[in-house]
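pipeline: protein-struct stage 2 | run 1193 | RADX protein
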Amino acid sequence: SKLTSLGHLEMTWRSRVRFHPLLVRILHKSRLRYYGKPEKKMDMPYQAYFEVADGSGMMSMVLWNSLCPEWYHSMKVGTVLLLDKYTIKTSYPFKTHPTPGDSQMKRFATIEISLNVRDPPTEISIIPEEMVKPEWGLPEVKYRFITRSELDDLPNNHSCDVIGLVTFVGRAERARKREHSEDFWLYRWAHAIDGTSDQPFILELFATSQPDVFEHIHPMTYLVCTQMRVIQDLTENPSRTVYLTTSNESQIFITGWHKGQPYTKDAKVKNFIQWTKSQSEADQIKKTVIGGYYPFPRPPDSFLKY
């Protein structure tokens, strides 16, 4: 059928009501958002953002309400979609934006694709990877993997992807989203090593929309975390420690979930796998820890400094 491109949509969307089908690849995926309120009677108040791209550039796509439980888990990073009967809206100004792996990619930030269950009912098709043709010109998923030896030189809030062997995982903890709020964030601390430094990655992992992965992080698993943000303690603390925290678009993968993921082709991921093959499992197991209370960042060693 006759297809359109994201670039063409941006130029012509105001003058059209009906749009031609789109063929896009998912490059980023946000966590699922629940926006229900007691006074509003909505069946499925869910929403999820994706960043999708074709040969012309990248645009946000929003999955609404009952389409979320139906499609959210099938729409993975790297999935190719054929979309028809979607709507175009001006972008929501306050949403978060992931850092693209390809810095040259054009971003269409003024509008977003809206997928709804009615008015009109969007038609979504997933194209199997083996049927995707090179002449479609869809971009590959690109990553920004860093090694532990590179981390200390990165600026605060820098976006990156990491892979490591888990040596410590703490218990799940809760933090209030806002003071006096009934809502909590669920998170846990983890350490992962990659052989490039004596220091581990210190990871603050908030529960994303992947409970099956979040609950099964354990020592000796290969952990991949994407779209992590660097937190540099910017005070003059001589014992400052750099750590990484999840963002709204972070995805987490553990052993058993890596097969078929686009990052398996990345050079730094391949280097890490080579390093793990040179390690003795028995030696590494002796150094692993699980559970317990992990105060971080560490408080100063005297009350005066506190």
